[in-house]
Give the backbone structure.
Amino acid sequence: MNPLPQRTTPLAQRFRRLPWNAAILAPLAALILLFVVSSFASEYFLNTRNLSNVLRQVSYTGIIAIGMTFVIIAGGIDLSVGSMVALVGVAVLYVLNTITDPLQAVILAMLAAVVGGALLGLFNGLLVTRGRIAAFVVTLATMSIFRSLALYFTDAAEVTTRNPLFSEVGGGFVLGIPIPVWTFFLLAIVSHVLLFHTAFGRHVCAVGANAQVARYSGIRVERVVLSAFLIAGVCVGLSAIMLTSRLNSVSPSDAGYFYELDAIAAVVIGGTALSGGRGTVWGTVIGALILGIINNMLNLTGVSPYLQGLVKGAVILLAVLLQYKRTP
Amino acid sequence: MAEPLLRLEGVGKSFGPVTVLEDINLDIAQGEVLGILGENGAGKSTLLKIISGIYTPSAGRIHIGGSAFDALDPISARRLGVAMIPQEFNLVATLKVYENVFLGQELRRSSFLDHARMREQTRALLESLDVHLDPNQTIERLSVAQKQMVEVARVLVNDARIVILDEPTTVLTSHETAVLFRVVKALVDKGVTVLFISHKLREVKALCDRLLILRDGRQVEHCAVASMNEEDMARKMVGRELAQIFPDKPTDGAPRGTPALAVRGLCVEGVLHDIDFDVHRGEILGLAGLVGAGRTEIAETIMGLRRKSAGDLLIDGEPVTFKSPRDAHARGLAYLSEDRQGKGLQLSFNVMQNVTDLSLARYVRGLIRHGLERKRAEEYQSRLSIKAAHLAAPVGLLSGGNQQKVYFAKLLDIEPDILLLDEPTRGIDISAKQQIYRLIRELTAQGKAVVVISSELEEIIGLADRALVIRQGRVAATLEGDDINEERIMLYAAGAWEADTERRADNARSQGARP
């Protein structure tokens, strides 16, 4: 095929070609509305410190939700991410406390988190592809397994570190913005490019939309699914670094507890189809922000913490209801 | 003529400013078979939906059994005895035949299900249609033709008086079609009126008493079938002379030299036995046979989608092994599956994404070049005259013919040398068919080798330079020139060998009976 001469497209035309549709616009509109309402509801909401805190809170589950987006678009689900945070967190603390040189310890601990997350994701992926077990079942089992291992290795006790540098990773700021937030947004950009602008991303959608068609088109279906779980694992690793370094400790029973549900909720609110095949990263980012702001607003306005789950549940239902309305 | 059972009077339908059906007048008596002909988009489906109460007509009246209606709803239509057998069956795959037949109107004894009576009635019903099918069989284990029979039985349980068959033969082989025709005759004998929708003129000619031809939402003919021949029907349907549906075959003799693709002794455990054939550049090889004869399996094995147990593939004389379609694509092979929606296209993807599905690597320079994808899709859109409102709209929204063209574009975009086309015109209208036949001939004229698998005899006869007849996983015959005709193909496809042995057995018996 001869390469075609590149046309220069007018900006307005390019703008119209962007995937502007209800799937993106609805969550975005909801986010803006929520933001405006929140700034009126509480005088503290627009406080820089508060906003920075909300973003920090969002980034822990948001990073995981980005990984989850790949898994869900590929037609799977990963329930084990919360337990994985705990297990990877325990590994991070183990490395930190074993190596004496502080800088070396921090670098190796972060490496361990990413590699450990990747391996656990790979384990899930292999069971799904090679083992031919439904992703829901595999990750339901590994959710239990990972949490159990984290508890076993620590005797269910909180592990802390005295490493003087580690807290800088998750607690530090760059240009006034917390490092976890930077991580979250940079990861979102990289993931968006990966999903929308590379052949791999196209293949993830193809596999989730119709794996049979993908197979007939010569796409290596198993490899794509495996990669999606691997990405989810790496994201868990990154989140575990941020979380443990913020607290300088890890509690094997509490760390990452129910994160899988928050991550799935963010993906769903962001307009990604739970049946797979289509979705966006920045929908997920918006979904995570919506959940974070709702939490924050409920706290600021003094709503009973017991009712926060109710509001979160209602938002999820509303988001899904709107999605079904669009595709009758 | 007696009072017509169904009469339409000036029926029309518009959606907003768009008129899709205008001034339809028809009448049909009890026990008649009415053929409804028309290309895709002619308004057949709309008409059916009005009769079965799904759409409200915007003009006209409907008379059923003497009562007049301005509009029907699905429930009252069913109560009046109108039943539709859709192209996509509404059967529950995990339930048994009798459970499906009585689905939603189960027979009970006190408050429990009366399985025995439902089973018995199903058996009786199927027998009255001369269909041999076990009521206890699970639906998912039935063939398409058998599922259709279950739908027919289900309609009869409802005491249907008007049965609509929407393109019932699209998915059937010639043999299965013959069985269906027998069933339709049995229905007519029971006094049922049948509306038979089809693309296939010959079937309408053979089965129907009367005829309605639609074109662009208008009624262009409503008459007795006997008064028209197939050419007249085709002309009325298309509205122009169909000079010839099939392009001329080249006359410069059989191609020689090294075959583009040679298959030697191909076996798949229990499915294919010792398949041998060659395809040359510039040649169309037809693979004829009944559904289930193993033709699709041959193509899938060549593409690396199935594991072969023995045999070799040679491309331009060079032995090759394909572990997956990816390997096959890399060697210039492309396969068009018979299952366009299940294996061919990503229905939720747009035209551009589908066109570049196989060839995506060519569009990647670091990142995917979306502009180049669009450009390429636009080229195919004009070259294959694909009618799509938006290239960015999901392919699932396009008509069957346009989907098929997108599927062709997807294959062509890897610039294949050898194309394996499995039922290349399934479920698409005549003009799209004609375009695809032209395209296939153009491809061979460009020096590509093409294998066409088809259950439609006309297609094999009209298109193939040479034809193999496949039966039960074996090559039953190789036909060339004038030998590619209906009789020959059917003889081998249905088992000439068995016919021979039966005849011999008969002879032996009659000889033995002689004193």
In short: Confidence is low (pLDDT under 50) at residues 1-8 of chain A. Residues 19-36+43-326 of chain A form a domain with the ABC transporter involved in vitamin B12 uptake, BtuC fold (CATH 1.10.3470). The first strand of chain A starts at residue 159 and ends at 160.
